[in-house]
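Researcher: I'd like a structural prediction for the single chain below. Treat it as a standalone chain; there are no partners to consider.
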Amino acid sequence: MNIGNLIKVAFSSLFRNKMRTALTMLGIVIGIASVIAMVSIGQASTQSVKSELSSMGSNMIMIMPARQQRGGVDMGMTSSKSLDNKDLESLVKNTRYVADISPMVSSNKQLIYGNNNHSCSINGVSASYLNIRKYELKEGIMFTDDDVKRYNKVCVIGQTVVNELFTDGENPIGKTIRFGSIPMTVIGVLAEKGQNGMGNDQDDIVLAPYTTIQKRFLGINYFNMMFASAISEEESELAATEITYILRSNHGIKAGQNDDFDIRTQEELVSTISSVTGLMTTLLAAIASISLVVGGIGIMNIMYVTVTERTKEIGLRMAIGAHNRDIKLQFLSESVILSLIGGVIGVILGLLISYVASRLMKMPFVVSEMAILGSFIVCALTGIFFGWYPAKKAANMDPISALRYE
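Model: Treating it as a single chain, here is the predicted structure.
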């Protein structure tokens, strides 16, 4: 029997009982749709996180004090004073792979303007912080290095702060707001960035010269952390290595001793998050694929029923010259076609589910070609694996007994 006739007979047999065929395919449809949707949503979430991190600066490097231990008690990072102005000056002068660098000190204060108030953290940074974190000005200006040198009481605020304090629609530029008891003049408003991937409001922010926060608010001479940007994303690791060498030298850390600081690059964050989301995607896809096994068992069950129902037909085919191989291929082709049709429907349904989910969760719609190709391969293998034994049973029937079967 040639391939064309084999496929024609298979379709004819399957469509003879449409409802049973549809119900048999349902397990395969659900299994493939689940796998496609899980893989697509998982890849979309990974891409969304990568995009979110890139919006913060794909070549950004974070330099933080190491966690402190005192008497066996973890004191956290806030108690460390390992980063100071000497480190900042050394990094500015001696790095080749760092484009910008900004220290940061923070203070939590109540912001007050007129009768309105808002609890917020004020971040002391340098003028280069905007370039490093990819913030843009909506109006006004950013403070300058001269403001930093003079400890000037000026600030740049985010849109959330504007909405909370200037409820009458006033232009905040030039207005004076108080942080506790200290007045600060607003000289700029940042463009909106919205929430990041972790749900934090990136517009609920106040930036001021770091020296102002150090001297007028906190009375300290060290930094909570530093932000830097490499000259390119590709040079991030080189920049991190360079920073490590300079800081170890500044702090007198000898070979074999632990650093009193931590350095994190965006590449490390992306890699870590990608591995976690990739693992979750694989786990969810593996769980979803269990329904494929259930669908395959359904195919085997129906093929057994089909073989029993068509026993006389099998005997007649054998009586007029059909070989065991022809009978086996006939039922095996029915099983494979049944599985492949279910796979096609499952892929379409899975893509539809992932498209709707991506729109609802405001993520990019990602189509995984490998997942689709893998689904068709799995469908074909499922059809062969679960259809083989019923097909073999049909091929091994005795023609005389088959013709006498009632």
